[in-house]
Amino acid sequence: MNNLKKTLVFCLLNIVAHSAFCQSNVEGIITDSHGNTIEGANVVFKNTDFFTVSNAQGFFSIKDVALGHYVLNISHIGFKSLQKPIEVGVENSSLLFQMEEDLLNLQTVVVTGTFEPRTLLESNTAVTSMNSETLKQLVPRGTADVLQNIPGTFADGSAGEVFTKVYTRGISASAEDDLGWYYVSLQEDGLPVSLVQHSYYSPDLFHRLDLTTNKVEAIRGGSASITALNAPGGIYNFISKGVSETFNGEIQLQSAIQGKGNLSHRADVTLGGPLGSNWFYNAGGHYRYDEGARNTDFTFSKGGQFKFNATKKHHRGYLKFYGKILDDYTNRWTGVAAVNWNDPKPAFGQDFNTTSLMMPAFSATIPDGRHIAEGATTSFDPSKGVHAKDLAFGFDILHDLGDRWSIRNNTKFSSKDANWQTSISNAYVSLNNPLAYFISGADFPIGEVVFRDTKSGLEMARLSNSGILGGNPIQYIGNGTLPNDGIMGTSTWFKDNKANEWMNQLTLRKQWENHDFNMGLSLGLSDTSLYTQGSFGYVTYEPNPKMLEVTLENPNEPILYLSDKNGVSNYGGLFYVNADAKVSQFATFLNDRWRVSDRLHLDFGLRIETINHKGSKDRYAPYSESGGVDGNPDTAYDNGVLASTGVQDLFNYNYSYVSYSAGINYRIQDEAAIFTRFSKGNKAPELNYYFNNFSNVPINKKGEIQNINQLEVGLKYNLKDFSFTSTAFWSELKNISVTNFEFDEADNSVFYTPNQSNTSRTIGLELESVYAPFENFLFRFNGVLQDAKASAWSVYDAAGSVDETDDSLQDFSGNQLPFNPNIMFHLSSEYQKNKVSAFFKWQFMGEREGNVANRFQLPAYSIFNLGAGYAFNKQLSVNLLVSNLFNSEGLANFFGANDFGANANGVNAQFIQDNPDASFVVVPVLPRATALKLNYVF
């Protein structure tokens, strides 16, 4: 028995010893082509569970690897993936790996616009990836400012951080007013920032870029038709920093000077690392204080956000919790007056770089038309701009079900609040125009009118307007005059928007040897409300406007107050919209990627989508009590408040459609591929269709679903010192609903013209390339050549009044599509060696038509950006960044004639012929900003 025990023990020891000797450790160091170590590279033994990440010294170690032959895969953003066969022997393996720079990130794995991760080279759609190093070269002045670096993307950030416009490939028609993201999806970590849009309520309100963003992935058209909720024009996905095996972080301090000496200060931070037991976290955010790019008498932006995620990794997948708290004040820049239709120049003493025709700060209390009988009021202070709040949290689960089945579910809840307190319109109104007085809401404001500075109380001007109804000019009484003999046609713009949202994407994936099949559900629910109120504001028309208290002081008559002490007039008499809506979105999708051979892949996807809009909108009428809200007939400014009548118009409409997309990718060789894709997408109306139209009439019909057809053919090539992608595209947009904002001087009413259904077509070529002619130096180029046409296009001409008897239709079919340049590009040179880095960038924006009549062109312009940096060591670096180095006065937008209530489409050949010297409103690009950044990495 003892011998048997000894034998068993001996055998057991042999087994243990043999097992130990049949394992080994694999260690290595990873560097780039210059010998610099690479931190954060993913090291994976293919078809095994062995995985690690290189540390700050580029070192990695994987222990207890069984002896045998393996394929080691090493990947890192910005470098070409490296696959090396290795043999693990009895002795520990010490290896050295050198990674080659991936100039265009063509071997970077992307997750946007696709149902399964794949590299850019393998993708059969036009995809661009921007990593964190590229993002650090920017002076972030808004999301659109970042996305203008994506080839083929038109991004207008001239208004600042919000109220921006982003679109691609001529899919733009409904994104040219105040819904600038109409066709595209702005996403964070794979889900939309917001589910709904309407006037002055776009997703850029709730998005800010900071150090918590790891990279940006952009899809232009193509597969967006089947991978995004109601956004066939493209996807812009900001992906947050994720799992880090070791504790690390970064702190960034920034100070900047903008425009005419305006200051901006900002602090960013991000931290990440393990929490123990396979838990990992990342958290960070920013805070900023910004005086603004142009001159105002208030702080333009202040606030920030906090973001976090916590991830639990296990052998079958992961569980991630994430969230965001945004609490931010900002504003948006309005237009500037210009003259000379052929070569626009600033007018009325204004300046394209520094002038901001916005109301100065004040604090007013205005009757709330929703609950006027209860004495409810709203507070208004234009220095607050838009106060955006977003509280969002969610979780993302990926689980391997076995037998090559997996399931992923990403869900998010959010509560949003956007409160606008700013001015809308800044047109010139002559003192000889009766509108200057009658817009106050007074019955007959004719006689001796007095204008006083609301801050000092001093009289600025006194005049008699007794002859204006007979066509005679005003007469000043005394020595004082108003600048430019006019006032600003502007309104207090109070909007209170709220939304509670839930969105979810569930994907079930099955992999076979030659097929990768995905199917799932996308769901979205939004409960949103909107209140809009507008009052007239008496403001001087000059580069630094002042509020005016206005009275009518006729002899032997009581003083009639045309404005309150803040200069606010016609309380709530210009705008009234009170509406709510519940939006539910449901989509089911499937996609199969078929590997025909090692080099040829096909995929086909189908999406069935249904959207329901259910809600109500108040009817309204002027408050009819004698003497107005306060009962005093001498305070004319509160006599015309628009208030709810208690009657509501209801709507409940469904929009259902089928979208599909098919693509082919063929690898010509290991570093080159060609692809083609055809997509048929659809765009359901946004809520502005109900909110902007149907004023005091039943909402008796649903909106039109726009149809989008797109074809693209591309080539991708990835060489050692030269990489490029080129994509030829054709896109067609049909059933475009077009309406114009109008003002009727006869009764001081604001209205929208009837919708017109139009069609556009765009063909073009997108290019993106990088060339490294010698060590430490490279050139980047991206741009687009395109031809955008208004194939079939009509505009409703209301002839300046609500009366339909003099209305007509104007046909502009065959004209160039407005705001789409034939050419736009970015060209940059970059240098980096040891501790020194520098770049110089040139952005060119070609000439664009200012409206569909093609009677005014926005001139081409160039913007140059410069940057230089020095790294004291691996932790501490400093960078100087200059945006718009030469203070370009490029014009980004056109709002039409310089008249209150005018719009771009009102400027046709006849108008210019009749008004050759008239002024008009343009929106210039943002002026120079010089920023100094200090970064500390640990």
TrEMBL record:
Residues 121-235 form the TonB-dependent receptor plug domain. The keyword Membrane applies. Residues 1-22 form the signal peptide. Keywords: Cell outer membrane, Ion transport, Iron, Iron transport, Membrane, Receptor, Signal, TonB box, Transmembrane, Transmembrane beta strand, Transport. Pfam families: CarbopepD_reg_2, Plug, TonB_dep_Rec_b-barrel. It is found in: Cell outer membrane. This is TonB-dependent receptor.
